[in-house]
Amino acid sequence: MNRRQIGPFLVLCALPFAAYAQPPVKPKFTLAQVKSYPFPNELTTAATGNRIAWALNEQGRRNIWVAEGPEFKARQLTHYSVDDGQELTSVSISADGRYVVFVRGGDHGGNWDNSVPVNPVQSPIPFKTQVWSVPFDGGDPKPLAEADDPAISPRGDRVVFVKDRQVWVAPIDGSSPAKKLVTVKGDLGDPVWSPDGSRLAFTSNRSDHQLIGVYTNDSTPVVWMDASTNRDTYQRWSPDGRRLVFVRFPGRGGFSDSVLVSRVQPWGIWTADATTGTAQQLWESPKTLRGSYPSTQGGANLQWAADDRIVFLSEMDGWAHLYSIPVAGGPAVLLTPGSFMAEFISLSQDRRSIVFAGNAGSDSNDIDRRHVVKVSVGRSGIEALTTGENLGWTPNITGDGKFIVFIGATAQRPPVPAVMPVGGGPVTWVGAERIPADFPTTQLATPRKVVFHASDGVAVHGQLFEADPQHRSVKKPAIIFVHGGPPRQMLLGWHYSDYYSNAYALNQYLAALGFAVLSVNYRLGIGYGRDFQHPASAGSGGASEYLDVLGGANYLRSLPWIDPKRIGIYGGSYGGFLTAMALARNSDIFAAGADLHGVHDWTAERAQNVLSRTRFERPADADTAFAIAFRSSPVAFMKTWKSPVILIHGDDDRNVRFAQTVDLARRLSALGVPYEELIIPDDTHHFMRHANWVRADSAVADFLSRKLGLR
């Protein structure tokens, strides 16, 4: 094999140029330009007035921004000026609007070590994961503690947070050091203040069971809410501060059950007296697969609403819908009927309205979008407040009840904070001037919704990107993009996740280079109902979702302007797994691929936790399941892997273990399969540095262009 160098990284390859190369297309914009979009997230509001705050990532420089009604002029509050990979999360505003609190550091999208600092710039002085506060009106941010999971007291004077697995507290202005507030057994988390700020509810995770406790003061013992062998979580206070509502799951353990058969995951909603801990069940989930605990954003999304009603999310009718039920008992009312899902759910300050993001609307394409939707907490029927090609997500109602704030985008304009009157009306874009002047807004393609079928009949949605769909005189190469997750959904526009906005930008650039790009929303993803998200024989139980990827390739091959010999594939995380599956099983169809931090052997990754022997009893089908998990892995098909691949991975990955890529590289090398590597030391699954995302995206575009005949 030849040896090839990319930057400082050694790469193994055997890379003849494609015999079918066509004259290169000069894109109308560069990758750096389309990657220059600022990305807002963590949008939040104060409990009173109309002050708002959010985090903004400008090419790796992450800062807190604020605005205040009625003008809502964006103002930068912090001034971090380096692309150092330190994310900003848990952004909140004190109820009186005087302070903004946030966490700087860590990787909160990880599956483990979320609070552990990251250091992708290899700084000799290590970074910290810290809780900070900064005055809304301006001033220097102050670190409150090396900690995470902050919650501001409704009185606006103190902040609690989790440090060393216990609950600590500090003055919000940083005027004195943090001190430990609660010390009890277990890993403490999810601190929630009572409405008057006099008490604090928290969870105590004790491995096989989890308790909810209420702290009052140093001289009063912690009160446990109906302590049991169950796992209790998601505690929320009643408006008068006398009661709590929470979710209860069965504790871990019991008889060994089948690995391969889908099991009901029961749960219930309970209420408790916060003073005595006495509790009673309010609602029990149906004992059906659809009745299982929801696996979409926010889980149960419990809210204690006005008129003593509890609002919650369930998939018991097949969709992630909102329901409400009286605290006194009675039937649950379906608030959001229809074939759409609800996520990013927020309760108004008067507790009478819910706003959320949903793929609802009158346009047939809205199932592949997000709109801002409003519903009353007591009766069925929704009102979509954004429509058409505009997308909107993470809505909140300002404390004065006058405005809805959200983040919005289109197929061309990247995400920007937005404000509209609570009853609907014109939208004001907040901070749109931060989009660089040379960002190619008008030159981006409008992706087209397509629907095709897998070989087993499953209907699959996708988005087709073409820079110039009117000119198809020359057969062009094509690329399939597969998202990660897998509970994700790519949209007909920019995405609410920074990871998938990056993918959207790269899809746009690949289209500008001359590729047709098909983004495949395969089964296991969200947006099309619970049954689509939880299919049979998927993942480590059979990888049936690969049929959707193969169906996407066959759809492309059916288009007369696509060269069937020049179809590539790329994806990250679960999309990296499906990329490797495509190359291993069907190198006859997929000519090249880019695998970003993918899973390659289920038996060495997530399935191992289920199938490993930790006690004498084992599920009767454990050995069968382990064999199926291997046959559901790319490494089971190495003998038919012929097409070249580039492997891209950060070695501080906290979602997919770096060993997955190391192992695959050894196998590819042993078989003589051509491959390249781009290894990024000390960065995580999400490439916390903007510069590292640009490097990774550049490597994908360069590799696929060379292998599929554009260079």
Structure notes:
- The protein has 711 residues and is of the alpha+beta class.
- Helices cover 14% and strands 34% of the residues.
- The protein has nine helices and 42 strands.
- The protein has an eight-stranded mixed β-sheet, sandwiched between helices. A four-stranded antiparallel β-sheet has the order 3-4-5-6, with no helix packed on it. Strands 7-8-9-10 form a four-stranded antiparallel β-sheet, with no helix packed on it.
- Helix 2 runs parallel beside helix 9.
- The longest helix has 18 residues, at 690-707.
List keywords for this structure.
four-stranded antiparallel sheet, 14% helix, disordered N terminus, eight-stranded mixed sheet, alpha+beta, 9 helices, 711 residues
Helices and strands in order, then pairings?
Layout: E1 2-6, E2 9-13, H1 31-34, E3 38-45, E4 51-58, E5 61-68, E6 75-76, E7 88-93, E8 99-104, E9 130-135, E10 142-145, E11 148-152, E12 158-163, E13 166-171, E14 179-182, E15 187-193, E16 200-205, E17 210-215, E18 223-224, E19 231-237, E20 243-249, E21 268-273, E22 279-284, E23 303-305, E24 309-314, E25 321-326, E26 333-334, E27 342-347, E28 353-358, E29 371-376, E30 382-384, E31 391-397, E32 403-409, E33 416-421, E34 428-429, E35 448-453, E36 459-465, E37 476-482, H2 498-513, E38 516-521, H3 530-533, H4 546-558, E39 562-572, H5 574-585, E40 592-596, H6 606-611, H7 622-631, E41 645-650, H8 659-671, E42 675-680, H9 690-707
Parallel strand pairs: 37-38, 37-39, 39-40, 40-41, 41-42
Antiparallel strand pairs: 1-2, 3-4, 4-5, 5-6, 7-8, 8-9, 9-10, 11-12, 12-13, 13-14, 15-16, 16-17, 17-18, 19-20, 20-21, 21-22, 23-24, 24-25, 25-26, 27-28, 28-29, 29-30, 31-32, 32-33, 33-34, 35-36, 36-38
Helix pairs in contact: 2-9
